[in-house]
Amino acid sequence: MKTDRFEPLAGAVLQSVSAGYSTYHDVGSDRSRDVQNYVLTFDRGTLVIENPILLTGVASPAGLINQILIDPLLIEHELRLVFKSGQELSVSLKPEHFNITEAAAYTPNDGTSIVVFQ
Fold first, then answer.
1. How many CA atoms lie within 13 A of 27 on its CB side?
2. pTM more than 0.85
3. Which of 29-33, 45-49, 72-76 has the highest mean pLDDT?
4. CA distances (Å), 60 to each of 29, 54, 57, 71, in order?
5. Strand, helix or coil at 76?
6. Cα dihedral sign for 81, 63, 113, 77?
7. pLDDT over threshold 70, residue 1
8. Would you give the DSSP letter of residue 72?
9. Measured between alpha carbons, how far is 50 from 93 in angstroms, rounded to an integer?
């Protein structure tokens, strides 16, 4: 199993978390669905998560505020964010968990390219 580090977020501090819902309309039908999403604002940029998450060692994403992200890892079918405290937030990258075309998108504060996790 291949593991890569997502270096732009290594050492970043999580400053805020917001949760919400986006409404998506299915192409070719009149069905719509609400999908829960999270916006994680770090001191280096913003990560918007559209896929299901799994938390380890913390009850909600808000419990990670002010934590330092030491290991942002891409592991086969997940984006795993490991914080200095040992707490983790994982984003599923499994095809069956995609709500839209991307699982998450990272926008750095410095205006360089957006990174999309598909």
1. 3
2. yes
3. 45-49
4. 34, 10, 9, 19
5. coil
6. positive
7. no
8. E
9. 10
